[in-house]
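Re: your question from the hallway

Yes, I did run it. Sequences:
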Amino acid sequence: MTERITIALDVMGGDHGMSVVLPAAVRVLSKRNDLDLLLVGDQERIRQELAGLGQTDNERLSIQHASQFVEMDEPASHALRHKKDSSMRVAINLVKEGAAQGCVSAGNTGALMSTARFVLKTLPGIDRPAICTALPNRSSHTWVLDLGANIDSSSEHLLQFAVMGSELATAVDGNNQPRVGLLNIGEEEIKGNETVKQAAVLLGDSPLNYIGFVEGDDIFSGAVEVVVCDGFVGNIALKSVEGVAGLISHFIKREFTRNLLTKMAALVALPVLKAFRKQIDPRRYNGASLLGLRGTVVKSHGGTDELGFANAIEVAAQAVKQQVPERISSRLQGILAERQTS
Amino acid sequence: MTERITIALDVMGGDHGMSVVLPAAVRVLSKRNDLDLLLVGDQERIRQELAGLGQTDNERLSIQHASQFVEMDEPASHALRHKKDSSMRVAINLVKEGAAQGCVSAGNTGALMSTARFVLKTLPGIDRPAICTALPNRSSHTWVLDLGANIDSSSEHLLQFAVMGSELATAVDGNNQPRVGLLNIGEEEIKGNETVKQAAVLLGDSPLNYIGFVEGDDIFSGAVEVVVCDGFVGNIALKSVEGVAGLISHFIKREFTRNLLTKMAALVALPVLKAFRKQIDPRRYNGASLLGLRGTVVKSHGGTDELGFANAIEVAAQAVKQQVPERISSRLQGILAERQTS
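Structure:
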């Protein structure tokens, strides 16, 4: 018999709240039998919405009331102090208490990170949690971290990120020796700042499958399975990539709708364009893991739709099933012990 | 009568050397009447190649012999010390001596930057040169700097980059008040490192049209005309963007060549796809300016073709014609004087 997984969902978070989260929940349940979901938010409104979806009697959906919610632009410190009964906080509390093994929120990243860190605490040996997501490459995907939880990361932090990313890649993809690259610039004169150079030494001495420096384009080349960087750099790279992908879509659309002839060409090309779009559909990559915590927390993009949020739930379920926090902890303990004895 | 411009070309630089540079030179001359070109490299080989192109008697093409050339992977310090008669160095010397007003090289960036800085020196008030290029946005283009000449830039350096980028935008695009954004991350808890925060104060106090922090996707949104960042961050963002653009092209191509039906769709869609590709053709954006030097130096992508290198020559000619170094110097002096009196 499969072990059951329970995931708590912050139903009030994100740009669209429960109108996206609840249909996504129903969608995932219909695909996975090992999953139960705890819907955290305004009990009355959730009940109404579930009735509308014909899900009043679904035993795998439970409601946990929360009287508050965190605004998308609310400072994290304010949420931490004044929103102790927010849907986000209650969902994280459920993980802490063991009522759920993981939670998903599309709420604001700063508040989610601060609250998760405050409630769940970091794993032993981890100084700071990191945000990690998969991005598509030619053959599969590349895990990239940190994407914005930390700035001014030390070389030791970069090593911790590398451990976390490797364990996630191993757990999710079944790759026992994922290749790890350290994000750097290739200019001859400079070859990276001091922190990156020191991190290269730490990574080289570690049992990780560290293959050396990589450049920005290697995120998409498939040269490595894990790319490690400081959160300032990673966040800017991620947003830049989202920006250019949006620009390219805009140009494709504009050219295909320019006149009657191009519109006819679009009709012919439609199945091909659809297949192409699926490859880089951001919804398929939605769900960033907050790694390094004593529990599974997944951040969904705030503006995503049902399909995207459903994917974030899958990411959380997968992390729980594969015991990602436990793996990270055990791997890091091994590395630290090794270092002390050598 | 238009004033004549002379640009020196490092004929030996780049992955393809003179087989790309010489046809590009001929192409630009046929389009611009105000331009003369100095071809720097192995005299004998240039003569042969020009003969092959039917350009033996073109009076607007002169040859300047150089007995050495800088390898693409040669350390900058080695080139600086041991390649005093390299095509790259001689081209820069010609600018220093006034025989040319600008030069273009597709040679290695580190060596080009070091040699240009050593020979030409920086403008008064500029601590470090920066690399700047235009990237496409929805309506036009965005100037981004620094793209890899500097790491660990101080807030004062970021201010200097902002002055340089603004003056380039004004000179090339005729926009007298280009909007300047400072690249940062948007996470609530963090909002940038100390350097970026300090730079925001300096920029806010300056007469530049500073509009605040921007995120990576704003490089492509058209929200600002100039994006300022440290070279480590800028280089990684640029390479990441190149990487994802390459991945997207790869997926489009793969989907359109999947089977007979999709290949037929590709035939129908071909004119549209061509028009689209033109919008993001990297050759149209080839030619990065090394700003902050006492002279115009433009770096071409090492692997570009004739069309791309021709564009880099145009970028140099434009910078010379618009007196970009003089403008930067004068604007910066104004800002520094203003600061001293206030």
